[in-house]
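Researcher: Let's do a round of design. I'm pasting the structure tokens now; please hold your answer until I've finished.
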């Protein structure tokens, strides 16, 4: 998973953005559901959730600017 920059997100079509949004939300759900079962030491990398949430926010921002949602 690599985070996209705003310029890359703005270059995508609405359909591509909506598909990417679905993928990210699904991935965030999986990461959250794993969260309770991972030990405090050597477990999940905490930055993953933050990166997912931020990319979701970026995509939603662009879609709202375009009036697509």
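Researcher: That's everything. Go ahead.
Model: Designed sequence:
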């Amino acid at each position: 998973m690599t985070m996209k920059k705003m310029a890359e997100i703005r270059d995508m079509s609405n359909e591509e953005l909506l598909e990417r949004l679905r993928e990210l939300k699904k991935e965030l759900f999986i990461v959250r559901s794993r969260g309770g079962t991972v030990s405090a030491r050597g477990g999940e990398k905490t930055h993953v959730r933050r990166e997912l949430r931020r990319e979701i926010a970026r995509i939603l921002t662009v879609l709202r600017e375009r009036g697509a949602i």
